[in-house]
Amino acid sequence: MTGKSGIPVAHDAKELHRLYTPGAPRAVVMTMGALHEGHAANIRAARELLGPGGQLVVTVYVNPLQFGPTEDFERYPRTLDADVALAAEAGADLVFAPDDAEMYPHGAPGVRVVAGELGERLEGASRPGHFDGVLTVVAKLLHLTRPDHAFFGEKDAQQLALVRRMVRDLDFPVEIVATPTVRDPDGLARSSRNRYLTAAERASALSLSRALAAGAAAAPRGPAAVRTAAREVLVAESGIHLDYMVLVGPLDFLDVPDDHTGEAVLAIAARVGTTRLIDNARLVLEADR
């Protein structure tokens, strides 16, 4: 079917594949809907890479496997018409919006992709089983959409690392392309969950990006200085409940030692009101001076 914005919306794989142009390069941007400027930036980056002759698919599916029993699956926003409009404006050619019956026709899958040790750290420790659900749906959507390139945002840094590892370890014939985190003018990282924040909560949430900026400014003085600078910002804000603030390696997400130099990820997760937010910054660390 064709959406109100003029681009086709497929609800099953057969319908999607009928819309494909044989031999055309293809890219996919996977989303859970509630699209915002961060998704649009991903779509525009994919369009630029493909050029006018490629086919760009945006998937919209709220995946139940990656939500825990106390998380916001039921209230997660479903805004398909608005999502199709944004996807079309940003340069998508097709939207694939399957339902649970299409994705999991036999019920919750008994066989899943297991994220391993990396998937049990940080976000995985806070949300047990989350990354198994993420990788399972990403693997299935890669099979269904058959892309040459798949675009993922750097805001979900641990997810990005796991998707790259899955593609490498299981020989998926796809290139994973990372796109920078998109922020509002005040510094808050774009997220579909930002709409849950009150004005006061949003003001508190800005401490996450301020902490990342403080940590980045301290990078020339080494890991200990980065951790101290970021934590000072966070502990001064009473409106957040910190889950973790860590400085980790970009591949294994293990804490880097105080003599570490080179690349690292400063990652933060915190609850603001009832909304859980994550953010991160990629740093290049120098020896402590």
Care to give the gist of this entry?
It is built from nine helices and nine strands. The chain has 289 residues and is an alpha/beta fold.
Number of strands: 9
Which geometry do the CA atoms define?
globular
What's the helical proportion of residues? 25-40%
Structural class: alpha/beta
With strands numbered from the N-terminus, the spatial order across the biggest sheet is 1-4-3-2-5-6
Alpha carbon gyration radius: 19 Å
Overall mean confidence score, pLDDT: 95
- Helix/strand order, N-terminal first: EHEHEHEHHHEHEHHEEE
What share of residues are in beta strands?
A: 15-25%
Show unreliable segments. none
Major β-sheet annotation: 6 strands, parallel
Oligomer state equals: single chain
What is the count of DSSP helices, taking H or I runs of 4+ residues? 9
Distance linking N and C termini:
62 Å
Structure description:
This protein is of the alpha/beta class. The chain has helices at residues 13-18, 37-50, 80-90, 100-103, 123-126, 130-145, 157-169, 199-217, 223-235, and strands spanning 9-10, 26-31, 55-60, 94-96, 149-153, 175-179, 241-248, 262-272, 275-285. The model has no long low-confidence stretch (mean pLDDT 95).
What labels would you give this structure?
single chain, 289 residues, alpha/beta, six-stranded parallel beta sheet, three-stranded antiparallel beta sheet, 35% helix, 20% strand, globular
List the helices and strands and how they pair.
Blueprint: E1 9-10, H1 13-18, E2 26-31, H2 37-50, E3 55-60, H3 80-90, E4 94-96, H4 100-103, H5 123-126, H6 130-145, E5 149-153, H7 157-169, E6 175-179, H8 199-217, H9 223-235, E7 241-248, E8 262-272, E9 275-285
